[in-house]
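Q: I have 417 residues here and want to know how they pack in 3D. Can you give me a structure?
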Amino acid sequence: MSVRRRAAALAFTVVLCGAAAPTAVAAPSPSPSTPDLPAGLYGTKDPTYDGVWRQSLAFLAQKIELVTPATQSVDWLVAQQCDSGAFASYRDASAPCDSRTVADTNASAAAVQALVELGVHRETVDNGVAWLKSVQNKDGGWGYNPGSPSDANSTAVVTGALARAGVPLVEVTKAGGKTPYTALRTFALPCGGEDGGAFAYQPGKDGELTANADATAAAVLGSMGKGMAAGNYNAAKAPVCHEGTGLTAEQSAQNGASYLAKALAGSGHLNLPPMPGAEDSAPQPDFGNTADAVVALAAAGHKDKAASAVAYLEKHAQGWAKEGGPAATAQLVLAAHATGTDARDFGGVDLVRQLNATGPAPAATAVPSPTATAPEKPADTSSEDEGLGLWWIIGIGLAFGAGIGFLLSGRRKNQQL
């Protein structure tokens, strides 16, 4: 996920939301050139479109590396929540939320995941969960903003948040038995062909599905009921694409993983599509979505298939992460941890130190990296209830996401128009 691309995407989303509903406009925020950014906020760039997201990802990456963020920075995130339980992408918390505040399911889900992993402010978590459940679409999924059509990325990150908060599946089932899993399956491409097993962001105008690596990485995690901090799993199995229409959530996740394994097998990285109107149409590496794919593959039991991508990121993604700020650095930390790679020596860079430096000094930190010294034992996530397993029962623990794209959604890439 590129923070710059996320900001451009959300800016466009706000324009469209404003056209449909004049009251839905984002509150202004400080310019990145001013010194007036909130003291507890991570990063120095304009937070208008990613403030809550980047703060939450930073917390997830820090926690999985046994770093405790400063109370000041946690308090900043908590204060971003509206009375309804929703989070906007960023807002001026000195004033209450009103009809002009644009609720963001992705930011809300990310904040819930971060606070669950930190084990603090359960009341904020519960309020966020209640709001997310209240805006679930009839098909069982979620759109980027309440009322917008469901998409794979938003559905996946919200599913991960509810799972990490210990919400039972029965509480998020709509009429006709529609669950988040049934929504995710509507975005899944069947096996066969170059894109077999992938997920689309959303169906196109005629219901066609176009493979989207960004959506696939998110959907793999969501289908397994896992959050963005997916942990370090040592299990290894060959990726297989399962045929048929009555697939379980676990089988759908494995199909997505098989697609990602193929997508990374050649160059070791995913590519960004050219931006509309760009003179240079040559493919450019997509470091953020490559990192997301690494986490998804590792969580699905295919850490070996992510090895070449990790090596590529270690060699090429350092400048991107530093320029991208806390969210980009956090993505590399999560990818490193998920594959047992030392986040404190990632291609010669201490990612944890780099991440810590983007916000207030942590309250506590562990050295050396727990990833390198104490690999996590994989948890048993099997269940008769379509792959949710213990994640719907266990409320707190170390457990990723969802990247983003451009245009109509802050997490959309290659949207079908």
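Q: Anything worth noting?
A: The first strand starts at residue 270 and ends at 272. The two ends are 21 Å apart (CA to CA).
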